[in-house]
Each structure stands twice: as C-alpha cells, then as structure tokens.
Specification:
Elements (H helix, E strand, L loop, with lengths): L2 H15 L4 H14 L3 E2 L13 E6 L3 E6 L5 H4 L1 E7 L4 E12 L2 E9 L12 E10 L5 E7 L18 H4 L11 E4 L9 H9 L5 E11 L4 E3 L5 E4 L2 H16 L5 E7 L16 H13 L4 H6 L2 E5 L2 E2 L22 E3 L10 H13 L5 E3 L11 H9 L3 E5 L1 E3 L6 E4 L2 H14 L10
Parallel strand pairs: 1-2, 4-13, 4-14, 14-18, 15-19, 16-17
Antiparallel strand pairs: 2-3, 3-13, 5-6, 5-10, 6-9, 7-8, 7-10, 11-12, 12-20, 16-18, 19-20
Helix pairs in contact: 2-6, 6-11, 9-11
Bound molecules: zinc ion.
Length: 437
C-alpha cells in the first residue's frame, strides 16, 4: 500500500467505527462535509443556490444528499449523480424489549434486513441509535446515543449440548438471539430498559418515549492479511460506498453540478419517505433545477448520469462454484460493473462503457459481475432511482466477501480507486451521451 492509500484507509476506518447506525453515518458524513465548507440546508426553507456553493440536506437524520452547484449550465452538462445507502443489516431492539429469563436480563431483538445471523454469536456487542424523550419541561426532544463499550453478548450454545452444531445449526430469529445484558437474579427488581437509557444518556427527569436502536460489534475496523491487503469491518456494505462517494465529492473541481445521495432503508426494500423509492432525491433535484431557472428538469435528467455504488460479491475461494466461471471479481481487482438482464441492476452497455472509459482515464482496473444463470440476484438503489427519475444509471460496487455478516472483508486498494473514478466522473466536462453512428 502507498502512503496515500494508507492515509485513505485510516480515514475510512475512523468513518466506519464512528458510524454504528444510519443516524451516526449521516452525522459522520456531515462532519466531513462541513469541514470542507458544505453548509446545511433545511427543506422547509427557501434555498439560495449559486454556482460554486456546496450544500447538504438530511431527512430523518438517516438519509443525506450533498451537492456542489457547478459553474457549467445544467442544460449543457446535466448533473453528475452518485448514490449509496446508509443502512446495513443488523439486530434492532424491539419496542418493549425486556426479557427476564433463567437469571438473566435480555433484550428482544428484531432482524433488520438480510443479516447473516451466525456471525452475531460470541461478539462483544454495543447498542447505538436514536432516542426520543420528554424532558423535565414536558418538551419532546431527540438525541443520538451510543454505549460505545461492549454491553451485550449472544453466547453460542456449547457443542456438547448440540452435537450436530457443525453439521447444520439453524438460527431461530425469535428465540436464539436475544442478547444477554446482565444478571437478574430471582427476586431482584425488574429492569426497565427505557429507565436504563434515561439514566445513562439523558438529563435528570427525562423520560424515554421511543427509540430506534441497533446492536453492533465493537471490534474496530482493521487491516488484515500477511501483507495487509484486506480491510475487515462491520457495515462495509454500504458505508464503504458512502465514504468513497463523499471523498470524491469533496475532491470534485466544481465545474459540473455533482450530487451524492445516501439513502436509509435499502436493506428493507427502499420504500419509505427517506428510502430510494421515496421522493427525497427528486425533490432536491427539482429545487436545484428551479434555482438555476433556465433548464427543463427532463432535459437535465436526460443529460445526467447516476452511478449507484453498492458493494459487489467477490468470488469466495471456498465456494467459487457460486459464481459464473467467467465473472469472478477479486479483492483489489478494482471496482465491479454489475449487470443483470432482469434489471435488478440498472447498467446498460452505454453506462457501463462510460464507466470503463472513466476507469481507463484514471488508470483504475475494472471488473464485471453477473450472477450465475441458475441463481437469483440481489438488487440495490440503482434500478429504483433510475425508474423513478428516468435518469441513465449504472450499478457498480467495490468487491467484498462475507456480505451481510457483522464482520465483512474487502480489499485495501479498491475504495480509494473508486473515489478516483467518481472524482473523474464529477469533473468530466460536457455531454455524457454516446454518439450514435
Ligand atoms: Zn448494499
């Protein structure tokens, strides 16, 4: 690794560690943006947008759009859009979570998204998220919380008590995974989780009303491998893309209007006010187009391109038959163009070719993924955004292993590479359309 990519990965690891929930991820992104001169906009106010200004706007504290108003007219160059998602599969605390069983105080949890459940066992877990409360003056307030230290664990059942464990242990999401928080001997006072939260995080006399809280593994992101060619962390899908796209926007030269959207709720289908299937991006684009005042939104979108970034499956050496034999992305092999004829990915030959050109311009290798013809295919925000807006779109992703585990693995080089490609995309001048012969 070069000094430069080491530096990049240090920033990336701090971002991953500081973003245990979508709320924290958005906060981490706003910190990076504010440090670079981006200012916050409020959707309920008038926006004064001028060429050269840089802004961000959030919804629900868990989705964010950041953009640079370019000096080039929208009618000429359209917009350069990049997208990712802030949420990751995890365990979330149920609304009435208290369980007292066999001498322990445990929490009822619900599985968010398509989580691999086995990796959650035997981890030093913490809890973070958003809490809404009523203060001593009866005012409603919200705050972000994070225990920051291991406060919970889901112990495995010993193999002596289940001799078939290695042959095919399944995980029941209701009964097998409530984490242990503390001892609760018979006759001891019942624990009230809301009171516990108030006591830990809130001012005196505050009363917790509701919350969205995620469990997370406290093990920090780390460089792994004999030559440190790998980066292991929780939430690489898809905070890696959030970071990569943000870094590219921070480096953009401001010629073209460039925008990064990071939506919550991708892992549960994107249908929400703040998800990619909601109106957030369209509303912000409309205001940017209106502020310029000289271009038609449809014409602008027609000249724009959306690069949807969401990690791709690298081929796993122990399970390589799960991949199509000629499409086997490897870690540190460069970003992956994702193709699916059923439109689970929005890539076309036009958008893919443009991406190949961008990669070649900045000397970055590029790979291609298509799933086995006899296997289903995941999806992402690309096709949703594309069908909502009608904007030409491309699905790409950094290759990774162990997707949806609470500890995922990626290469040490590919994040910075994709940042370079996206930066080149934001800075590419003129019309992106490919000429018809
Ligand atoms: Zn994803």
């Amino acid at each position: 690794m070069t000094d430069n990519s080491q530096q990049y990965n240090l920033g990336l690891r701090a971002f991953l560690d500081g973003s245990p929930t979508p709320f924290h991820a958005v906060k981490s992104m706003t910190r990076l943006l504010e440090a670079a001169g981006f200012t916050a906009l409020d959707e309920s106010e008038q926006w004064a947008l001028k060429p050269g200004t840089k802004h961000f706007v959030t919804r629900n504290g868990s989705s964010i759009i950041a953009f640079v108003v370019g000096s080039e007219s929208l009618g000429k160059s359209g917009m350069r859009l990049a997208g990712a998602h802030t949420d990751s599969p995890c365990l979330m605390v149920k609304p009435l979570p208290e369980i007292n069983k066999a001498g322990y105080f445990q929490l009822g949890v619900e599985v968010y998204g398509g989580a691999l459940l086995n990796p959650w066992f035997d981890r030093d877990l913490s809890i973070a998220g958003r809490v809404v409360y009523r203060d001593a003056d009866k005012q409603l307030k919200q705050t972000m919380v994070d225990f920051e230290r291991p406060v919970a664990m889901i112990p495995s059942l010993a193999i002596h008590l289940d001799r078939e464990a290695n042959a095919g242990r399944t995980v029941n999401a209701q009964t097998d995974i409530p984490p242990l928080l503390m001892l609760a001997p018979k006759g001891s006072k019942a624990t009230d989780f809301r009171a516990l939260l108030a006591e830990t995080f809130l001012p005196a006399k505050a009363e917790v009303l509701d919350f969205e809280l995620c469990l997370y593994d406290t093990q920090p992101a780390a460089m792994v491998g004999l030559k440190e060619e790998f980066l292991a962390s929780a939430r690489l899908d898809n905070l890696l893309s959030c970071y990569v796209a943000t870094q590219a926007l921070l480096a953009a030269d401001g010629t073209n209007t460039s925008l990064v959207v990071c939506n919550d709720h991708e892992e549960v289908g994107s249908v929400s006010a703040i998800g990619a299937d909601g109106p957030f991006l369209e509303a912000v684009i409309e205001r940017i187009v209106q502020a310029e005042g000289s271009s038609q939104q449809n014409a602008v979108l027609d000249r724009s391109l959306m690069i949807s970034c969401d990690n791709a499956h690298a081929a796993h050496p122990n399970f390589s038959d799960k991949h199509d034999g000629t499409h086997m992305p490897v870690l540190n092999g460069g970003p992956v163009i994702k193709v699916n004829v059923k439109q689970r990915y929005a890539t076309t030959s036009l958008t893919a070719s443009l991406f190949r050109q961008l990669c070649s311009d900045v000397n970055v290798p590029v790979q291609t993924f298509v799933s086995r013809s006899d296997l289903g295919c995941g999806s992402t925000i690309g096709p949703i955004t594309s069908s909502r807006l009608g904007v030409p779109t491309l699905d790409v992703g950094i290759p990774q292993l162990a997707m949806h585990s609470c500890r995922e693995l990626t290469g040490s080089e590919d994040g910075q590479r994709l940042s370079h490609v996206l930066e080149a995309f934001f800075n590419r001048s003129g019309n992106l359309a490919i000429e018809v012969e």
